[in-house]
Structure prediction request, 488 residues.
Amino acid sequence: MTEGRTYDAIVVGAGPNGLAAAIELARNGWSVAVVEAESTIGGGTRSAETTLPGFVHDLGSAIHPFGYASPFFRLLPLEDHGLEWIHPPAPLAHPFDDGTAAMLERSTEDTGATLGPDAEAYKNLMDPLVEDARRIEDTLTGSPQAPRHPLVLAVAGLRSLRSARGVAEVMFEGEKAMGLLAGNAAHSFLPMEKRPSALFGFVLGTLGHAFGWPLPKGGSQKIADALASYLRSLGGEIYTGVRIRSVEEVPRTRTVLFDVTPRQLLDIAGVHFTGRYRRALERYRYGPGVFKVDFALHGPIPWKAEECLRAGTVHLGGTLDEISAGEAAVARGEHPDRPWILLAQQSLFDSTRAPEGKHTVWAYCHVPNGSTFDMTGRIEAQIERFAPGFKERILAKNISGPAELERQNANLVGGDVCGGYMDLRQLLARPMIRLNPYSTPAEGLYICSSSTPPGGSVHGLCGYFAARAALSRRKRGLVTGARLDELC
Ligand SMILES: Cc1cc2nc3c(=O)[nH]c(=O)nc-3n(C[C@H](O)[C@H](O)[C@H](O)COP(=O)(O)OP(=O)(O)OC[C@H]3O[C@@H](n4cnc5c(N)ncnc54)[C@H](O)[C@@H]3O)c2cc1C
Prediction:
């Protein structure tokens, strides 16, 4: 720690976006320090032994299609700093009650082969999107490439602004393809009848084919650790156990980037904002919460559809109608009997995650924001339905409802893991409609969390764009005056 030093920028919060912002600033020659409230870095991308010794569970993110495909992360030498991606043979399995499963495979053809009557429709829909996915990524990283299928992309763009049900019922005839699309669309936390839930279905499917849905060897903490190691190699500093409660507490600097959500930003910096900006932050909406269970097992999950063992991620919820009913119940403030479940089985592909022969499972379902209802029994019943004998394999479990998640990370307001609701309005107005959504009306203060575009997931793009916004402004006078050595 450097006593009484003035930094070009301070980043508050060491989540993936905070670390990404700090890296982009440091890459451009700025002196940067990151201050993190918790005792470990990573925010939503951390791992720990939460059940039994030797079982490494992800506290937040588990599977990383966005992290792997992130045009910003791809610019960084993260592999040199310890990050190793593991690609399960299949990105995703979606089992049904009859003991079969729709599989999202790397190839659209192999995926189609699991979708009965919709094999051809699926391939025709996805092939052009997959072909253009890499070109779009190149464009974002500064080497523009014209899309190969501009018309198809435009049509897909318009289609993805619709609801998942609207698209599924027009595009497909069988339950498998509809269920697969609904499972991906449920990542939006939106009801299947609400726009733009289809967008999440298209994007996740496209990423699965174009890039895969990999996991970091050793746990998601390794992403944060690699970002932190690279940041330090650029001269950046990181201090943990420093919770910032007001702008005046921020160490001496000219620029502050906050990796926090609007509610916290209001508390920390509200007095520096215009009334209009304050009101927009007050009106910012949070989405449903998450109820999560980590399981330690003495064997792999005994799936009825054995091909599920080839996939890193499994979506449980069966048909479009069932997933739709569950997500609609959550939107009404209820707790579905048969929730849609997002499940990851990392240890099948990463032997560092559990003692030999043993396994870790990461599973969550959606619940109303701030819910205190215990969903453990319903999550276990839903897994058991597709894998009879699952419960007998449980050695230990660790349960995190919304309150516990928020206790671990203040950004998870009411258990919302996306930094705010992601309907069409709030995807565009994030945190509000503004020429530069990362800047605030207060000179030198920026927001860089997933409450800015492009929103939730581990990709670092919110941080990257916020840093670019800060870099594009001239350095001005000091905005804060606390001494870092007094805070730590
Ligand atoms: C249970 C769960 C499952 C998820 N699954 C996935 C997944 O599989 N794949 C995926 O891509 N994404 C997933 N996500 C989402 C992903 O983790 C987030 O979108 C991402 O971490 C957001 O990054 P961020 O930097 O904006 O915020 P965060 O990662 O939340 O980091 C914010 C940081 O700021 C710190 N902070 C907050 N307030 C203060 C303060 N006042 N002073 C100092 N520090 C402060 C926090 O402690 C935290 O470390 C999941 C999240 C959770 C919680």
In short: Residues 137 and 409 are 30 Å apart (CA to CA). The first strand starts at residue 7 and ends at 12. The chain has 17 helices and 16 strands. The radius of gyration is 22 Å.
